[in-house]
UniProtKB/TrEMBL annotation:
Signal peptide range in chain numbering: 1-26
Organism, scientific name: Hwangdonia seohaensis
InterPro entries: SusD-like_2 (IPR041662), TPR-like_helical_dom_sf (IPR011990)
UniProt keyword Signal, yes or no: yes
Protein name: SusD/RagB family nutrient-binding outer membrane lipoprotein
Keywords: Lipoprotein, Signal
One Pfam short name: SusD-like_2
Gene3D superfamilies for the chain: 1.25.40.390
């Protein structure tokens, strides 16, 4: 469902005017100490729409962190720039203002809205569905941030705008994860088919309670598996609880937000509109070529009209000209198909394909009675079909059958083949692709070692906190560093253990 955010802002404006008009004539002196900008009776449906449209973020953090570090670090994108470092993760260059862009944007904008929405709806017994949906959305947004930085403000986040607490404490990631998993469990139980329903103001599922419950348990499955290295017992318990609760069962359950030109545009589409230098990595293109993957013809577009050719990571203009496999002209290297990165392309949060691959992993670990090979096959089919959401023709059933015949489930290397397919399935979902690669280590990637890089020639494990935090919230950010480790790209966050 596509909604123009301008209309939402106009609605906010008129609600504010109405609130002011109604109250301005009555007991004006008693209101002098109240916040004149507060709108206590803002319709829940309107705020739910706002929270959902905010959830994909903007070009600022998508361009700098998700694409700039995420997709390039896991070698799905590449570029040759040095001075501008359009993709610092391509060469591990320390462009710290790129690193903290998500932190900046989230705590200055998205955070306060979702925190306020959950708090407002919790106080109203008639708003149980709004509150449950808000709790799920809050987990979806906070887990993206903690997965990039580790310890972050959580229990006190957003309170600068809501209660004038501008110096929030940093919560330990293990505590954040425990609370997020508990929130998903509570929200799933809270959803009610008999309570007030947001209907069309829910731009993700149109008020479908069953799909929201599947989303909650699918997110629980994702977060539960995040713990697989650091706390296997807890990981198993949450994975089993998610599967018992009921996760996504078809591609129609995918959690996404639609965009439209002139309204809320796609942050990925906006990023590619602004940057014409990004190319598909040779690692990614070669992986698809080696498997005769029908997705290659969907994902790759070569402007010169030549064959698909990925750009190796870690090259600059000089080394491209001397050692680039297609020479020194960027027009001979694969760009992302422009049809997939339009301003009205959808933003994906979690897909059925991801769920099936997670179920396959759970079966391999003995945490699920389902058949790992069946889940693997379902995941591949769903990952292929998923491109239909972008307005392009997905691979045919025959093409997918042939692909699975040539690239079958391999029980002897189960976690590796599942991890590689998950990596391919999360292209253009960079937050999850980067996080799951750090957890699983698949596919096995060869790092680059560009001169002067900031990681010692290893792939980044986290993003850096903003420099300004050390001057305005120094005690709290330094406490996080004391708990977690140095504010470096190579410091592993809590769940990312060797």
């Amino acid at each position: 469902m596509k909604i123009n955010k301008i209309s939402i802002k106009i609605a906010y404006f008129f609600v504010a005017i109405m609130a002011f008009s109604i109250t301005s004539c009555a007991d004006e002196l008693a209101e002098l100490n109240e916040n004149p900008n507060a709108i206590e009776d803002l319709p829940y449906g309107l705020q739910l729409t706002e929270v959902q449209l905010d959830a994909p973020g903007g070009r600022y953090e998508m361009r700098r962190v998700a694409l700039g570090w995420g997709l390039s670090s896991i070698q799905q994108l590449a570029d040759v720039n040095i001075a501008t470092s359009l993709l610092p993760g391509d060469k591990y260059i320390d462009f710290i203002d790129y690193s903290y862009a998500l932190y900046d944007r989230y705590f200055l904008q998205e955070c306060k809205e979702v925190v306020d929405f959950v708090a407002r709806t919790a106080e109203d017994p008639e708003a149980v569905n709004y509150n449950a949906m808000g709790r799920i959305l809050k987990v979806m947004s906070f887990h993206k941030v903690t997965d990039m930085y580790g310890d972050i403000p959580y229990s006190e986040a957003g309170q600068g705008f809501l209660s004038n607490n501008w110096f929030p404490a940093y919560d330990r990631q293990q505590d954040i994860y425990l609370d997020m998993l508990s929130e998903l469990e509570a929200a799933a139980a809270q959803l009610s088919g008999s309570a007030e329903n947001p209907g069309s103001q829910d731009v993700m599922y149109g008020g479908d309670i069953t799909q929201w419950r599947k989303l909650a348990y699918s997110m629980m499955l994702r977060l539960g598996l995040r713990l697989s290295k650091v706390d296997p017992a807890a990981s198993e318990a949450w994975v089993k609880k998610a599967i018992t609760g009921g996760v996504m069962t078809s591609v129609n359950d995918v959690a996404k937000v639609e965009h439209e030109i002139g309204g809320v545009t796609s942050p990925i589409g906006d990023s590619f509109e602004a940057d014409k230098f990004m190319r598909l990595s040779d690692t990614f293109v070669s992986w698809m070529e080696d498997r005769n993957d029908p997705r290659l013809d969907i994902l790759s577009w070569v402007e010169s009209g030549g064959p698909h050719q990925g750009l190796p990571n870690g090259l600059d203009p000089t080394t491209l000209a001397s050692s680039g496999p297609a020479g020194g002209d960027l027009l001979d290297y694969s760009q992302v198909n422009p049809a997939l990165v339009l301003q009205d392309s959808p933003s994906m949060f979690i897909t059925y394909a991801e769920v099936e691959f997670m179920l396959a992993e759970a079966a391999v670990r003995g945490w699920h009675t389902g058949d790992a090979e069946t889940h693997y096959n379902n995941g591949v089919r769903a990952a292929m079909a998923n491109w239909g959401f972008y307005g392009v023709a997905a691979p045919s059933t025959g093409d997918v059958d042939a692909y699975l015949a040539a690239n079958p489930y391999d029980a002897g290397n189960a976690l590796e083949v599942i991890g590689e397919q998950f990596w391919a399935a999360t292209f253009l979902n960079p937050w999850e692709g980067f996080s799951n690669w750090r957890r699983t280590g698949y596919p096995v990637l060869t790092p680059v070692n560009y001169p002067g890089n900031a990681t010692g020639g290893t792939i980044a494990r986290r993003m850096k906190y903003p420099i300004v935090e050390f001057s305005v919230n120094g005690d709290n950010v330094n406490a996080a560093i004391a708990n977690q480790g140095p504010n470096e790209y190579t410091t592993r966050i809590w769940w990312d253990k060797n």
